[in-house]
Specification:
It is built from 7 helices and no strands. α2 (about 25-55) packs parallel to α4 (about 70-80), α2 (about 25-55) runs antiparallel to α5 and α5 runs antiparallel to α6 (about 115-135). It has helices at about 10-20, 25-55, 60-65, 70-80, 85-110, 115-135, 135-180. The protein is an all-alpha fold.
Length: about 180
C-alpha cells in the first residue's frame, strides 16, 4: 500500500498532482487484470517462439515438444509432415511473421513491455527470407508476406508518432487550462 503525506503548505499545482495520484480501487483492479492477461499472452507467445526456434535449429525430437500446449503440438505436427527443406523454411517464415505480428500488437497495446524480442524475430525473419530468396519459385510468395510485415512496421511507426503528437497536444492543453485558471 502506498502512503501519501500531504503538507499544508503545498501550492495549488502540487495539490492537483497529489490528488490525481490517488486511484480508484476498481481502476487498479482493472489494470491488474489487464496486466495479467498481457502476461499470459506473452507467456503463450514465448512458448510458441521457443517451439519455432527448436524447429528451426532442429534441437529436438518431436516427442520432446509434444507435451507442450496444443498450439505447440499443432506446430510440431505440421512441421513434421513437411519433408522438403524449402517448405519447412516457408512454414517457419510464415509462423515467425505471425508471431511477429501478434507480439507487435501486444507491444503496441502495452508500450511498457520490452520490445527487444521484436528485433530478434525480425532478424530471424530476414535470415530465413534470404534463404528463401535462393529458391526462385518460392520467392514471390514470401515477398508478399514480407511486404505485409514491412507495412505493419510503417503503420506502427506512424501510430507511435501520432500517439506522441497527441500526448504533446494534451500536455499543452493542460498547461493552457492551468494558465487560464490562475
Amino acid at each position: 500500500m502506498q502512503r501519501i503525506i500531504i503538507s499544508t503548505d503545498m501550492t495549488q499545482e502540487q495539490k492537483c498532482t497529489s490528488s490525481s495520484t490517488l486511484q480508484d480501487p476498481s481502476q487498479t483492479l482493472l489494470v491488474l487484470k489487464r496486466e495479467k492477461r498481457t502476461l499470459k499472452a506473452l507467456e503463450e507467445l514465448s512458448d510458441i517462439n521457443f517451439t519455432l526456434y527448436e524447429l528451426m535449429f532442429e534441437n529436438f525430437t518431436p516427442k520432446e515438444l509434444m507435451d507442450e500446449n496444443p498450439r505447440q503440438r499443432e506446430l510440431v505436427d505440421e512441421y513434421s509432415t513437411l519433408k522438403e527443406p524449402e517448405y519447412r523454411v516457408i512454414f517457419l517464415l510464415r509462423e515467425l511473421i505471425t508471431q511477429f505480428t501478434a507480439l507487435k500488437e501486444l507491444v503496441d497495446e502495452n508500450p511498457h513491455i520490452d520490445n527487444s524480442i521484436l528485433r530478434v524475430l525480425k532478424a530471424e525473419i530476414t535470415r530465413l527470407k534470404e534463404k528463401v530468396d535462393e529458391i526462385p519459385h518460392l520467392r514471390m510468395q514470401v515477398d508478399e508476406h514480407f511486404a505485409l510485415m514491412e507495412l505493419d512496421g510503417e503503420y506502427s511507426a506512424l501510430k507511435e508518432q501520432t500517439a506522441t503528437n497527441n500526448l504533446t497536444l494534451e500536455t499543452e492543453g493542460k498547461m493552457v487550462e492551468q494558465m487560464e485558471s490562475s
